[in-house]
Design goal:
rod-shaped
Length: about 140
C-alpha cells in the first residue's frame, strides 16, 4: 500500500509550508519516518548532489506514484514551486490508496473462506456427526 508514501509527502508538505527549502524538507521528512521510501529519499538526495537525473534514479522503483513523487521533487530542487503540486499529488495518492484498499476488500471474503472450509467445517462436522456415528455403530454391533 501507499501509506509510507503518503506519510513522506505529508512530511515534505509540512516542512515546505513552514518555510524550509525543498532539500531540507526532503531530508527532515526522510529522517522523521523510518520506511523504505524514506531511505530511498535519502539516497535520492545524495544522488541529486552528484548530478543524476530523477528519471534514471526512479527506474528502480516499482510503484508509479513513487516515481512521480521523485520527479516532482527534482523539479522543486531545480527551483520550481512545488507546494501546490505536492498537495494535489497527495490527494491523488490517497485516492489511489483507497482504490487499492477496495480491491483488497473485494478479495478478502474469498481469502477468509479458505481456512474456514479447510479447518473449521471438517472439525464441526466431526463434532456434530461423531456422536451419531458412535451411536449407530454401537447399535449395529448389538444386532
Amino acid at each position: 500500500m501507499l501509506f509510507d508514501t503518503i506519510v513522506l509527502i505529508d512530511g515534505i508538505i509540512s516542512h515546505l509550508s513552514s518555510g524550509k527549502s525543498v532539500v531540507k524538507s526532503i531530508d527532515l521528512a526522510a529522517q522523521e519516518h523510518k520506511s523504505k521510501i524514506s531511505e530511498y529519499a535519502k539516497f535520492f538526495l545524495q544522488a541529486q548532489v552528484k548530478g543524476e537525473k530523477a528519471i534514471v534514479l526512479s527506474a528502480k522503483l516499482t510503484i508509479p506514484e513513487n516515481k512521480i513523487l521523485f520527479v516532482i521533487l527534482e523539479m522543486g530542487m531545480k527551483g520550481l514551486p512545488i507546494l501546490q503540486l505536492l498537495e494535489d499529488f497527495l490527494k491523488e495518492v490517497k485516492f489511489s490508496n483507497s482504490i487499492q484498499i477496495e480491491n483488497f476488500q473485494r478479495t478478502l471474503p474469498f481469502k477468509l473462506m479458505v481456512p474456514l472450509l479447510l479447518c473449521y467445517f471438517p472439525s464441526l462436522i466431526l463434532l456434530f456427526i461423531g456422536p451419531f456415528i458412535i451411536d449407530f455403530l454401537s447399535y449395529s454391533s448389538s444386532m
